[in-house]
């Protein structure tokens, strides 16, 4: 990726020199279809940029990544593309006070989900296009000044194949010449402009509130239309608009609101104003649990929150990415809990989103929420658990610290004061100080400008009668932060573990005495951070930990239970609780877990405990226990319930014995039945997966399943299963397809890597550890950054969990000190995961 990077210093220099008055972008996408479409890999892009010189200097550059440039004109003066264009930048000299730049280029269709992605539906041969730009891929579609603080209005015009519809940020219509022309946008950043084009299935609705009317649209590929529950998408959309209008006091500012579910998408979704794009996996082809619908609702609301946090008001540079992503992540759960049917969304947040944050915050690459983003490669990797989930967790703490009313009033003033502009951290803090009366600078210094997670542990003393004389909270961590936290006391009563006392306190320093609990009877469980007000790792005193081992399933409150599950998992990851002990607790109590999202998280953690953190000598027994427990719970689950479906998937993922495989084969061919279990197509792929990975389903059997499901999703499943077969030749082919070739699309690269890496095939893929370290720098240099991330993360030899692999990783890092910082970060993160696994395995071995 040489030449494609952009540094923060360069962006600041350019912003000081110029301001942009507007863009006119004309695209001709007719080359996307036709007999020669597969050979034609480019489309014509003509961009006119009007900008002013507002600072000192007469030279700058525009951004463009394109195979070729036909012509460049600056203020009527023709520039030689061979001289001014280097493949990523167009040099601009002799700037006037007012300038017009026209760039006529041939831009490339993408197979990697970056820029203008082109997809051919294998089911019906239809072609679909969409754009994805964050953080800096608009330059793959049109020439621009690719940085978030050079906002401008845009006019798009698109010539598309006959029979297609085209959408963009603004409202559009087709003129007599067959060109789709779109209304000028409000001033927005390059990375949130968007074009979607193709024969999409499109459904409409509208949202009204007083005099405000917002046209709504939702779309997907035609072949997915039969599965598309647009009514539920519109329901959540309308509930979201109600919530944000009630709380933000600023009407939705971008006119229409379309939502496109598109194929081979790299992200969950993208907040392009007026034209939000989502991965099409949010259209469910088979039976899924309510957790899946909750997740989709959360993403819809997250993207809607961006219309204000990110689109209306945008960060100056990617350092303050949290100003949009942390707020949107927090608001997604906030709106979900208060405006939709998913009233337990904070349980999911505590158990799921925070798990992502805890992991990211303990990696060597952890960073403050307001990060130091030197360039675009840094920015790409900072769409991480710190920026999203930790940032959202810290905002939840801020609401507890400043008060809900002060927080929301601060948001309202922020939008009105900075509408269509760009901001930094100080701009928001100043407003929150106004509304809360709190010292936001001190709060920000502790929470936003430092990294790492604190551990909070209760220390309790009792009198002779067993009553509490003092309850203190001990805080550990490199930075001791102020926490507004609650401490709950729980006791066993009638077979239930229920809270009987609670106190809130400002936790500061290494030791804080909590007022209000002295004199209470001795609890069976002390839960620090009850109600999940702050961001921390919860620890337990010995008595509380013993209670959880014996009675976790007896906790009646679902949020408290979720917090305890999360805390036990953190103990396991930190090598403080043997992996086999976590497995034991999970097998004892997961069957009683009522929250389906929590159950799915526990399933994932339990599989990781055996795969990564258990002593190698115990892995086989651990795997057997998981499969036996999964089958036991599957057989007793309520027929037809989402719990039954979840346990069926867990059993399939853990199957390891011949009897397990025979049952899976029977469920697939109809010889075996489990009352109420609907073996639909998605579940069929889940049941077939372990059979392929263990050599009981060959290529013919996998292709037979594809014939039943000859769709884009089916093709991804087939690709994954083919790469998962236990054969040296299969692994060699999969490696070559991903590492030595760029023929596969982003989605099929992901599927191949997922199939290649099988925990049951450690020895088979061991030879690829050395090949990995020999290849990754070349892959990083030659492939797109998204594909580079897939390869470097996905193929790291973490399953070769031996000190020798750790040493090989250290050797590569030592020998490649000058490698791209983003590449080194990925390798350092993978190294840390491996070192953590080895420490946890040592802990588990001591329990044998």
Unreliable runs: none
The span between the termini is 49 Å
Structural class of the helices, strands and pairings? alpha+beta
- Report the count of strand segments: 28
What is the helical fraction, as a range of percent? 40-55%
- Mind summarizing the main beta sheet? 12 strands, mixed
Report the average pLDDT across residues: 96
Large-scale geometry: globular
Work out the radius of gyration. Answer: 27 Å
Number of helical stretches of at least 4 residues? 28
Portion in beta strands: 15-25%
Verbal overview:
- By secondary structure, the protein is of the alpha+beta class.
- The protein is 44% helix and 20% strand.
- The strands form 6 sheets. Strands 1, 2, 4, 5, 7, 8, 9, 10, 11, 12, 13 and 14 form a 12-stranded mixed sheet that branches. Strands 15-16-17-19-18 form a 5-stranded mixed sheet, covered by helices on one side.
- Helix 9 packs across helix 10 (425-436), helix 13 (558-573) runs parallel beside helix 15 (596-613) and helix 15 (596-613) packs parallel to helix 17.
- It starts with 7 loop residues before the first helix and ends with a helix.
């Amino acid at each position: 990726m040489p030449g494609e990077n952009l540094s923060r210093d360069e962006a600041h220099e350019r912003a000081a020199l110029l301001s942009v008055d507007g863009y006119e972008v004309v695209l001709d996408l007719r080359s996307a279809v036709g007999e020669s479409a597969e050979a034609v890999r480019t489309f014509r892009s003509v961009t006119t940029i009007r900008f002013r010189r507002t600072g000192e200097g007469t030279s700058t550059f525009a951004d463009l990544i394109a195979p070729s440039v036909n012509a460049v004109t600056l203020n009527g003066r023709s520039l030689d593309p061979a001289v001014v264009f280097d493949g990523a930048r167009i040099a601009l000299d002799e700037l006037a006070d007012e300038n017009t730049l026209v760039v006529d280029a041939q831009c490339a269709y993408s197979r990697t989900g970056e820029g203008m992605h082109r997809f051919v539906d294998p089911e019906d041969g239809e072609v679909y296009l969409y754009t994805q730009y964050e953080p800096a891929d608009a330059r793959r579609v049109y020439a621009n000044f690719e940085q978030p603080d050079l906002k401008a209005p845009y006019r798009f015009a698109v010539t598309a194949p006959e029979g297609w519809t085209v959408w963009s940020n603004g409202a559009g219509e087709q003129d007599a010449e067959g060109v789709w022309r779109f209304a000028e946008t409000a001033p927005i950043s390059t990375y949130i402009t968007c074009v979607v084009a193709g024969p999409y299935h499109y459904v409409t609705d509208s949202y009204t509130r007083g005099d405000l009317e917002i046209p709504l649209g939702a779309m997907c590929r035609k072949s997915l239309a039969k599965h598309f529950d647009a009514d539920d998408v519109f329901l959540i959309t309308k509930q979201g608009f109600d919530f944000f209008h009630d709380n933000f006091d600023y009407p939705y500012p971008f006119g229409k609101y379309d939502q496109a579910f598109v194929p081979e998408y790299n992200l969950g979704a993208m907040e392009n104003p007026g034209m939000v794009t989502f991965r099409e996996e949010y259209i469910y082809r088979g039976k899924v649990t309510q957790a899946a619908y909750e997740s989709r609702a959360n993403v819809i609301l997250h993207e809607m929150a961006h219309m204000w946090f990110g689109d209306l008001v945008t960060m100056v540079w990617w350092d303050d990415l949290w100003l949009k992503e942390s707020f949107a992540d927090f608001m997604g759960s906030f709106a979900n809990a208060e405006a939709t049917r998913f009233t337990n969304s904070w349980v999911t947040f505590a158990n799921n989103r925070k798990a992502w944050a805890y992991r990211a915050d303990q990696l060597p690459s952890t960073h403050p929420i307001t990060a130091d983003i030197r360039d675009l490669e840094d920015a790409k990797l900072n769409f991480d658990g710190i920026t999203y989930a930790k940032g959202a967790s810290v905002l939840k703490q801020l609401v507890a610290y400043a008060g809900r009313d002060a927080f929301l009033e601060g948001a309202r003033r922020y939008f009105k004061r900075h509408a269509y502009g760009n901001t930094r951290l100080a701009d928001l803090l100043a407003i929150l100080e106004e509304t809360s009366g709190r010292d936001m600078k001190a709060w920000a210094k502790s929470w936003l400008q430092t990294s790492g997670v604190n551990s909070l542990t209760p220390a309790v003393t009792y009198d002779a009668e067993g009553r509490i004389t003092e309850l203190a909270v001990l805080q550990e961590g490199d930075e001791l932060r102020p926490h507004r936290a609650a401490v709950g006391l729980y006791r066993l009563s009638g077979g239930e573990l229920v809270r009987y006392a609670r106190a809130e306190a400002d936790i500061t320093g290494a030791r804080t005495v909590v007022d209000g609990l002295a004199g209470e009877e001795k609890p069976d469980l002390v839960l620090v951070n009850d109600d999940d007000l702050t961001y921390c790792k919860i620890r337990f005193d010995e008595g509380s930990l013993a209670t959880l081992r014996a009675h976790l399933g007896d906790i009646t409150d679902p949020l408290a239970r979720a917090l305890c599950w999360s805390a036990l998992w953190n103990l396991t990851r930190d090598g403080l609780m043997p992996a086999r002990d976590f497995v034991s607790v999970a097998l004892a109590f997961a069957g009683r877990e009522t929250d389906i999202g929590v159950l799915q998280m526990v399933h994932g953690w339990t599989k990781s405990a055996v795969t990564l953190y258990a002593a190698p000598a115990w892995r086989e027994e651990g795997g057997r226990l998981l499969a036996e427990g999964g089958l036991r719970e599957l057989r007793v689950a309520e027929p037809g319930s989402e719990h039954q479906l979840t346990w069926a998937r867990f059993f399939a993922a853990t199957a390891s014995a011949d009897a397990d495989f025979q049952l899976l084969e029977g469920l697939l061919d109809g010889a075996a039945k489990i009352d109420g279990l609907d073996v639909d197509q998605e579940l069929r792929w889940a049941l077939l997966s372990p059979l392929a990975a263990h050599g009981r389903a060959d290529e013919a059997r996998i292709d037979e399943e594809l014939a039943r499901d000859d769709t884009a999703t089916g093709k991804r499943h087939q690709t994954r299963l083919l790469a998962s077969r236990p054969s040296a030749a299969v692994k060699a082919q999969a490696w070559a397809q991903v590492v030595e070739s760029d023929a596969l699309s982003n989605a099929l690269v992901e599927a191949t890597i997922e199939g290649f890496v099988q925990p049951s095939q450690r020895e088979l893929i061991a030879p690829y550890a050395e090949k990995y370290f020999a290849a990754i720098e070349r892959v990083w240099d030659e492939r797109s950054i998204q594909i580079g991330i897939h390869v470097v993360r996905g193929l790291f030899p973490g399953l070769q969990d031996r000190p020798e692999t750790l040493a090989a990783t250290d050797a590569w890092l030592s020998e490649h000190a000058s490698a791209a910082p983003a590449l080194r970060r990925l390798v350092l993160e993978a190294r840390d995961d491996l070192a953590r696994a080895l420490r946890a395995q040592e802990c588990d071995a001591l329990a044998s």
